[in-house]
Amino acid sequence: MNTKAVVTSGIFTALICIFSAISLPVGAVPVSLSLFAIVLVAVVTGARFAAFSVASYILLGAAGLPVFAGFGSGLPVLFGPTGGFIWSYIFVAIIVGSTIKKSEPLLWLSAFASLIFTYAIGTLWFSIVQSVPIVSALAVCVVPFVGFDVAKIILAIVFGKSIRRRLR
User: Fold this and answer.
1) What is the reported pLDDT for 122?
2) Backbone dihedral angles phi then psi of residue 43, each to the nearest 5 degrees
3) Which of 55, 17, 11, 52 is nearest to 34 (CA)?
4) Pairing status of strand 31-32 against strand 23-24
């Protein structure tokens, strides 16, 4: 990696850390801007830098920096009830970032497919860790968040494409 790549990844890692830490505790799964930040970074930088930035974010949180929702940190968060959502972000970055140079419909499709992927991994993880039926986990982890998450994806793509054009 050259200096520009390291600085770019560092800036976007910081952006993810800031947006992810800010959250509203509304139940077992907080509302945060993590997904917005991940999709934004993927649209602006592409798969490689986005995945590196997300991995850096996860490592910083694992090391104890308060970068997860509600300023959480450490392995208990990564392996706790909401850990599946955090781990899925690497795949969101890769899925969305790999389509940025392809067609517009494919970008939108990949973003919404990555949301479904995040819900699937996060909800299944939550169900296992909390020992609750999957239907109960869906009611806690997905139903209250669908509208907000769709709005975050739309805004992240719109802003991300605008930022990407300006950086060229």
Assistant:
1) 96
2) -70, -40
3) 17
4) antiparallel
Given this model, what pLDDT does residue 1 score? 64
Tell me the C-alpha to C-alpha distance, in Å, between residue 35 and each of 6, 69, 83, 136.
Answer: 22, 11, 14, 22
Max CA pair span of the chain:
48
In 1-33, alpha helices (H):
3-21
Backbone angles phi, psi at 72, to 5 degrees: -80, 165
Domains, the chain, with CATH or none: 3-163 (1.10.1760.20)
Residue whose C-alpha is closest to residue 48's, from 2, 3, 93: 93
Summarised one tens digit per residue, pLDDT across range 101-133 is 888 899 999 999 999 999 999 999 999 999 999
Q: Token pair for residue 59? A: 């490592």
Work out the mean pLDDT of the chain and round it to a whole number.
Answer: 93
The model's pTM: 0.92
- 84 neighbors 125 (Cβ within 8 angstroms): yes
